């Protein structure tokens, strides 16, 4: 009898220990849950790696936790990333979609779990599952690129080579729209001659283009945000161009990665006397190109400000407050409340002031300043 009682006692103690361990395990799991899940499109572009670090810095002193995952240019991976974060108990999802339309199913899964969704930098389209949008003014980015080309060419009949981002990215349409609305009057009056898009030539007398019309042009001049594809397109266009489409030219390049690739191609052609080329994102490599005179400008989108806006909005939500917004964007399904961040044009004249003196980069990272 004593032996049975002793065995019963041992079993009771073991059961209690197991219960305590399970409780401890549950507490540990709770403390390691994630408050804010962040999904970025790829690690292959410096811009997004830079954003990753800014997000980490922004939440370093916060009581809230975050996890950042990359989709590596795959909508399937993006959805998997969202599901991973949902399983970790996130309350807020910040997502820069690889493909604005394809991301709809991922964010709809988040909304079903009661998670607040913030589209970051790129709008998620054709769904009502987006609560907020934090963005730079993408139309203004394109307008700044177009205006820079206008302000820095001379004469008339200047060959204009057009390039755009990926057709799967809503921002690529907005960038091109902004540039087109500024450039089109100068195309119509003969300042510029479109050199590499028959669709753009067919629409040269129309200032406001429909989404379908923009899509037709993008279909011919997209780089898919890929520097290698930009090189191939630039080489193809140069091969097809006659002497009348060379000499002093202007190039609308959508971002810094493609701008450097395109500039290298055009710069190596002896029939190109000079070129003015746009860019955006203020990537380190392009800042050096600007200093060296190989890229004309970049549109500086201060990621510090955009990240601060996104994290500030997330913390407001976690604290039970309503985030402040400055406007809205229609995503094809609903008007999404948005907070916009201003952009700055950077070229040789102000590169030191805007990027070095502001503390964004260190002077030691460049030569020839």
Tell me what the structure shows:
By secondary structure, this protein is α/β, with parallel strands linked by helices. It folds into 2 domains: 33-130 and 303-341, 3-Layer(aba) Sandwich (Rossmann fold), CATH 3.40.50; 138-301 and 346-365, 3-Layer(aba) Sandwich (Rossmann fold). It is built from 13 helices and 13 strands. It has helices at residues 2-31, 46-58, 75-87, 104-112, 138-151, 170-188, 198-202, 211-221, 227-240, 256-267, 284-292, 303-318, 351-356, and strands at 36-40, 66-70, 92-95, 116-120, 132-136, 158-162, 192-194, 247-252, 272-277, 298-300, 327-330, 335-341, 344-346. It has a 7-stranded mixed sheet with strand order 2-1-3-4-5-12-11, with helices on both faces. A 4-stranded parallel sheet has the order 7-6-8-9, with helices on both faces. It has a two-stranded antiparallel sheet with strand order 10-13. Helix 2 packs across helix 12 (303-318) and helix 6 packs across helix 8. The longest helix has 30 residues, at 2-31. Residues 1-5 and 13-31 have low confidence and may be disordered. It is found in: Cell envelope. Residues 36-321 form the Periplasmic binding protein domain.
């Amino acid at each position: 009898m004593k032996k049975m009682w002793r065995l019963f006692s041992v079993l009771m103690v073991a059961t209690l220990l197991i219960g305590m361990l399970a409780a401890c395990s549950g507490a540990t799991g709770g403390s390691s849950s994630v408050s804010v899940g962040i999904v970025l499109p790829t690690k292959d572009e410096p811009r997004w790696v830079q954003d990753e670090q800014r997000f980490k810095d922004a939440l370093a002193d916060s009581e809230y936790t975050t996890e950042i995952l990359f989709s590596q240019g795959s909508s399937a991976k993006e959805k998997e990333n969202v599901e991973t974060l949902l399983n970790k108990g996130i309350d807020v999802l910040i997502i820069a979609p690889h493909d604005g339309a394809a991301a709809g199913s991922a964010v709809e899964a988040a909304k079903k779990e009661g998670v607040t969704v913030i589209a970051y930098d790129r709008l998620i389209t054709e769904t009502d599952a987006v609560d907020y949008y934090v963005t730079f003014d993408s139309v203004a980015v394109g307008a700044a690129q177009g205006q820079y080309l206008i302000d820095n060419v001379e004469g008339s009949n200047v060959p204009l080579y057009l390039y755009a981002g990926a057709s799967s990215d809503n921002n690529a349409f907005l960038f091109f729209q902004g540039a087109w609305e500024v450039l089109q009057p100068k195309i119509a009056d003969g300042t510029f001659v479109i050199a590499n898009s028959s669709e753009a030539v067919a629409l040269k007398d129309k200032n406001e283009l429909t989404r379908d019309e923009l899509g037709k042009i993008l279909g011919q001049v997209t780089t898919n945000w890929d520097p290698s594809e930009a090189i191939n397109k630039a080489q193809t266009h140069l091969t097809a161009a006659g002497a009348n489409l060379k000499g002093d030219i202007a190039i609308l390049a959508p971002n810094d990665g493609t701008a450097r690739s395109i500039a290298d191609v055009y710069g190596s052609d002896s029939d190109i006397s000079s070129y003015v080329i746009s860019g955006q994102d203020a990537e380190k490599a392009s800042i050096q190109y600007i200093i060296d005179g190989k890229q004309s400008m970049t549109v500086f989108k201060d990621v510090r400000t955009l990240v601060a806006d996104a994290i500030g909005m997330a913390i407001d939500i976690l604290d039970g407050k309503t985030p402040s917004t400055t406007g809205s964007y229609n995503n094809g399904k609903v008007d999404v409340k948005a907070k916009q961040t201003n952009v700055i044009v950077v070229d040789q004249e102000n590169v030191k002031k805007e990027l070095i003196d502001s503390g964004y980069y260190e002077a030691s990272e460049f030569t020839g300043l």
